[in-house]
Amino acid sequence: MSIDRVLSKLWVPALLLIVLVLLATFTRYASAYTVILVTSILMYVVLTVSWSIFSGPTGYISLASAAFFGVGIYTAALLGTKLPLPIVILIGGLASSCLAFLVGALTLRLKGTYFAIFTFGLVELIKHLLLWYEIRMTGTRGRFVIVVDNNTIYQVMLAIFVLLLLTAYLVRRSRWGLALKSIGENEQAAAHMGVNVTLVKVSTFALSAVFMGAAGAIMATRWTYIDPYIAFNYFLSFMPVLMAIFGGLGHSFGPILGAAVFAYLEEVLITRFPYYYMLLFGIILLVVIVYLPNGLMGLVQTWRTRRLERQHATA
Amino acid sequence: MDTKDLSRREFLRGAAVAGAGLAAAACGPTPAPTAAPTEAPAAAPTETAVVTPVKDKIVVGMSRPLSGWNATIGDAAFRPIYETWVPMVNAEGGIYVEEYGKKLPIELIIYDDKSDVGTMTRLTEKLILEDKVDFLWPASGTAFIFAQAPIATKYGYVLITAEGGATQIKDMLPSLPGVFVTLSFSDWYQLPVLAEILAAKGAKTAYVSYIADLHGIEYSGVAGIEFPKQGIDVVGLKSLPPDIKDLSPVIKDADASGADIFCCFAYPDQNMPACGTSMELGYNPKAWVGGPGVNFGFYHAAFGPAVEGLMGFTAFARGSSPALDQLADTLYEGKPEEINDWWGHPYYWAGLDVWKAAIEKAGTLDQEKIRDVIASASPENPLETVLGPTWFDNGLLAKETHPGEIGQWINGVFEVVGPTDKATAELVYPKPPWPTG
User: Fold this and answer.
1) Model-level pTM greater than 0.90?
2) A54, B175, B228, B337: which sits with the fewest CB atoms below 10 Å from its CB?
3) Of 3.40.50.261, 3.50.50.60, 3.40.50.2300, 3.30.70.100, which CATH number belongs to B44-181+343-400?
4) Per-residue pLDDT tens for A38-60?
């Protein structure tokens, strides 16, 4: 093997490593606000990538992200003062996962729009159940969450992100991932081939919720005050779907790119053009959907193919 | 074809792109690659005072709901106030700050929090850490204040609030020394006055309906304490779900209870249909009290003469004081009636007046000194605002400085009817019948 080929095989993992090291040591050199901003971008990335673990290959559009995220938030609000932070985050993830398992077992027989609408209903159901409980049983509506230092929040979010990436990669590369893909292509055929369709769907759904719950638990400590309306904000159900489409659904890194660019763009618009934010955001979304049907990753791939073609032409 | 290899290559390549994107996004707003201290709280406020004696403006930062569900509230409440107040002060050259020996104009930095608490907390820290604003002005709404106040306190910023206030914040205020709440609320000091003036007219029983949220629970709870204190029995208590559409069962239930007073402690979305349904069913209690909404000009614009006798929460009316008459002229003259807010507007305006007076008195932009000036204001040593002599009582605008608490629509004007010593008109009790035809 020539040195050229070794280098060309090595530069990508090397770059990945450098990026990870940069992110891990980020709090040492970045300004305090940049850390906060990147935490928030990572939150969107985590939500979008976890959403796409399940919804990407199977094509089941879940709008339950806000429910899983909200369960994490309430876990932090209820247990934050009683238990150490890592345990709270773990419980947040597990609680979300249990909810996803239950809901998945009940509803994954629903298809297409029905599933999307049910999962969306779940967000409203939990919100109102909590509201009812808080008003009748505890006589309060909102709760204060323990305040955690911003750098710690960043590091926890980064850890969740890295674990999620690893999980997403492993799922995709395994037989399990192939089973998910075959479900997305033709569920009946998959069942005939011997895939335990229900088990694969429900367990993946539950797995994806772990990360959303954990992200919610750590994010709540940044928000300091929460109530059911804040915790179960349906906005966070739609964002992962939009971000994944924005980045490109068919690519493993589409959701990451989509969420990162989308979240950063939003930050720029609400601070630089606060009065035109909605208008500009809408225009950008329209343009991307109309002209980039495969999202940002589609654009990246088109560039790459063109460059390769040009190289071939000159060679 | 070896799909396994292909997907791995894709994975790594994608990772690089995404990582680079992420890193670029992250590094974008960083000013320079110099090591920035992460612990800014102690340095931020003092730096303007000590390091730079030259200063040509006062920079004020705000995270406001310019879009999203909260935008209608923000746009009607605090926004018209700061959009009128700041140009007025700047037209005079700004605020005189002794430390710099001159008047400094105010510059606003406003971000859109999309009515989302998470975004609001992030933007608040951006204003403090990155824009290094001299002052922070408030976000909109009770829940938003609850989330913003601890952040302002953490960085040593003074925060004079606008929209929002609740009994729950009273327990928090001792741990938030730089937070000052301007708006009046349930037991501060609306419902004690309501109970007192109605009892004085002979009301004996009350039916209380309330929206099932923080606001409604608080008002129904305080009513349950204040009404009995004045010898008024609460004979009915009914919670309303926030998305209620048909209020006729509640109105019929209230009618059947025969109570003298009907209360609807809810928002315009509930108390406007409650008013319409009462009219439709011919339910005319001796006193009809509604929550936020009744105090706005749009209530009169919508219901016309049917508003006669309806009661609600308020702060002032024309005739309260010459300064407040002037304020009403400035804000409402030549504009549609819908925008009138007789409850919130003078308090938000007074909050800005307090801020200006405190800066002038302290002679500096130092947060701690300004905080001390506001906190130490008292009846003997007040700050001058549109309300007259003004001071705070444990972080809440002192009730003595409130120009009014309870209002009633009388001859098409939302008059102050309580407390009696501040009234601009006498309470009409029992309420006149609904107009016919």
Assistant:
1) no
2) B175
3) 3.40.50.2300
4) 999 999 999 999 999 999 899 89
